[in-house]
Sequence to fold (710 residues):
Amino acid sequence: MTNPEAHARIAALRTELAAHDERYYRHATPEITDFEYDAMKKDLADLEVQFSEFALVDSPTQRVGDDRTEGFARVKHRLGMTTLDNTYDETELREFHARLVKALGTADLAYTVEPKVDGVAVSLTYEKGKLTRAVTRGDGEEGDDITANVRTIRCLPHTLKPAAGTNDDLFVTPFPDLIEIRGEIFLRDEEFRRINQLQEESGEALYANPRNLAAGTVKQLDAKIVATRRLEIVVYGLGACEPAPEGLDQGRGDLRVVRDRSGPHGGGPSLGFHSQSTFQAQLRAWGLPVESKLWVVRGIDAVWAAIGELDALRRGFPFATDGAVVKLDLFSQQAVVGYRGAGQAARKLSPRWACAYKFAPDRAETRINAISFQVGRTGAVTPVAELEPVLLAGSTVKRATLHNADEIARKDVRVGDTVLVEKAGEIIPAVVSVILEKRPADSVPLVFPTECPTCGSPLMREPGGVKWMCVNSTCPEKVRRKIEHFASKASLDIDGLGEEIVDLLLTRGLIKTIPDLFRLNVEDLLPLKKSGELWATNLVNGIAERRTADLWRVIHGLGIPQVGAASAKELARRFRSLEALGAASLNDLVQMDGFGEKTAEAVRTWFNDEPNRALVADLIAVGVTPTPPAEGAAGGVLAGKTVVLTGTLPTLSREQATEKIEAAGGKVSGSVSRKTHYVLAGEEAGSKLEKAKTLGVQVLDEAAFLKLVE
Fold:
């Protein structure tokens, strides 16, 4: 390769990697797997070493990713957050050990080996044992303040537990004035599946993997939405600590590093831990969630054996694990070898004393027998690869998502191709790449349909998006999906009306629309099942009972774009009937706290559509009279007012406080703004209380709140 060719290749790789960084860190919507990304970055790093005349300042190989987004306050880390070097190769892992042996002058090195949780990095600040702030990695120096969202994580204590006993390796109270603890926010596989099931019931696109969903969740601006998704966290690392251990602020410029001079992590009298393993013990003693598995071993052979044990165990873990993190155990040895990139602005800072050994993804080779197209409730047409069955990560895979037309074109996927299939996030099968050398000679490019595969109506591309949509409101598949969503647990929760029964009712012509459900009688149903009258009676009665379902459930069941359960509840509180909601102007909707223009326009556009108006009118005609929020709420002392909860109240749980606010006509919001009327603050109130004071929002304690509403 000549230098001009190398320059062009380097420039192209840098541009492509920068685009992937933007999708991964800022939008949580990566288009390639971690394995593909790491391979691309390694190719670039090798070229940059070979052709050193090209400056590295703008290279993605020298920068940490940046996850900062709009809408969050920016916070500077007291001690910068680093990023680990990755390897998929045993030889490179042994070279990592050899470098440490050379630097430290001994081969007798102790290491810790722990699972690498595939989640979102976060730094937690505890002051005198109380959680005061949570910040994303950001660019390593500065991140987004996500404290309100992190406080919804149930397994994370807001107050550290005093260490019991007299173990010399553990802190004793009082706690440090301030300590930064690093961790990873993630979703369990079970929770990921639950949320995707709700997405499917709502006709929305499925999330690709738990990591992407966790990343998108922590960046929600409404903590109430975050609270509905059961995020979890594991902690493992130390940032800043005050009072500072001896030797702090050494060798990393404005990013500080601990240097151990007299024993346990700097020798300060309050610090009992002196290694990664004893620090883990301290975290556990404080009541913090730590890694369930931790190997403490000596020598690289033992490290490699521990990685093998982890590989054998990881598929039984309830969360995604994409590798093992290997660290020198002793902090004193960590301090000696230091960091790459220290003192260089805008450079990637990575510890020389740690690395991540990443497991190659589970992949299998198979053949695409056909490509089918599914129509969702919203009309989105999703391509699916029908595969020659293949065993992958312990289960037989027969189908894999192809995402959208652009993805098919980018990978040039065709019927008859031999492909590599991977479980994205070890859960959802996806086609990774085509094995071109095995492509049949008569292969032809796939032509994405221009007509709906169900009803034949022309497809239209979603404005500004990648989806192709069937816009026919009477499309049989859309109708079926809409009825399923209306009856689902997320909406009206009609007992006994699952997908199989909906399909049966549609096939027999007993229903054509959602309102037809309420026209069913026992005689209609008797011929359908051998169980006879009892089943038919139960189903008809179950449907009839939902005529007076909560208004928010009916609104959610209508399937209005951009309107999930939380938004449906807000609309129910504000308008209190389907008729009033249907008559609401765009300005009425935009004025609602927490409703942006996009959501408001989606609601108004839906009600402007004649078939949708006819649907609502028909529901009312068959006796659907939804139950609005309690009457007391409309004229209560908090009517039209927004309240933010923060901290721990003396006697009321958050749920109890929320019920009282809503019963008094108020609305609970997850963030403080100029539209906030009150902040109800308890112990450990944190940043929301500070913001309320800055904005001049009235702050109530529990006693004042109870006096106001009772």
Remarks:
- The chain has 25 helices and 24 strands.
- The longest helix spans residues 3-26.
- The first strand starts at residue 74 and ends at 76.
